[in-house]
Design goal:
It is a single chain. With 274 residues, this protein is mainly beta. The protein has a single domain, classed as Thrombin, subunit H (Beta Barrel). It has 4 helices and 15 strands. The longest helix has 17 residues. The protein starts with a helix and ends with a strand.
Length: 274
């Protein structure tokens, strides 16, 4: 029975990609170089990790940054980095942050498993970074979290990237192409450095973070971005930080989960870690 269920899931996912809908017209990336352009987005920032890595992240509390779990691992060793290797530059614009804080604690989703394989681990790719002190600035307002967006929903992404690392860029309009459990396949434009970037949707009249960018892929000639929905996946990490857990112990027991990396590869997906 378990084998049948697994095969059906794989087949269903494969068929879903064969039936990938046409992408609606996306807006282009806009560099937010002035204070008027970027004021609403000052809670998005760049994570400086070690001496030569960057990711994107966003405040969901004055001292709490949401990002992608894989950003916090040393790619050469597969070991979780110490918190003191991580810095957050909120509202970074033209190389100048609105606020700057070092990390003191991190929490990775308990079911996330980092891999150094060329095909990244996409499941539960979420992490929280606790900062040394709250960012209490009138222009920096943490974002609310939202529900998983529907297929076809119009979303947006605010991110940093390899060739735009000193200034935030905003794509106001892209699209959810497919949903598979907590994983979203999207048409948003991303590049190296965009990992951990918040994905937004307007819900109940408010701009809310609904996903975090994990990877980009080429699926049958179509460039897509892949992210993890935040709905229902935050409680464990929040509780872990509340109890001042300073390291994540990853057990050898593999949780029961859909292995997105192998399934996407079966559809001809070519991955690049952003």
């Amino acid at each position: 029975m378990q084998l049948i269920i697994k095969l059906c899931a794989v087949l269903g996912f494969f068929i879903a990609f064969l039936a990938m809908p046409a992408v609606a017209q996306n807006s282009g990336l806009q560099s937010l170089r002035t204070s008027d352009q970027s004021r609403q987005w000052d809670a998005v920032g760049r994570l400086n990790i070690g001496s030569n890595s960057i990711c994107s992240g966003a405040l969901i509390e004055p001292d709490l940054v949401l990002t992608a779990a894989h950003c916090l691992f040393d790619r050469s060793t597969g070991v979780l980095r110490p918190a003191h290797d991580i810095e957050f530059a909120a509202g970074l614009r033209n190389g100048r942050p609105t606020a700057y804080r070092r990390a003191v604690n991190i929490s990775v989703h308990e079911h996330y498993r980092f891999t150094t394989d060329v095909r990244p681990a996409l499941n539960y790719d979420l992490a929280l970074v606790r900062l040394e002190s709250p960012i209490e600035n009138v222009t920096v307002t943490p974002f609310l979290l939202g529900a998983k967006p529907a297929q076809g929903a119009e979303i947006g992404v605010a991110s940093y990237g390899r060739d735009r690392a000193d200034t935030l860029s905003l794509q106001e309009r892209c699209q959810v192409l497919r949903r598979q459990f907590a994983t979203l396949i999207m048409s948003c434009d991303i590049e190296p450095g965009s990992s951990g970037a918040p994905v937004f949707e307007v819900q109940n009249g408010e701009l809310r973070i609904v996903s975090v960018i994990s990877a980009m892929a080429d699926i049958r000639g179509q460039d897509v971005s892949i992210g993890t929905s935040v709905e229902g996946l935050m409680d464990q990490m929040m509780a872990e930080l509340q109890t001042d857990v300073t390291a994540v112990t990853q057990t050898s027991t593999q949780p029961r989960r859909l292995r997105m990396n192998s399934q996407l590869n079966s559809t001809g997906a070519r991955f690049v870690r952003p």
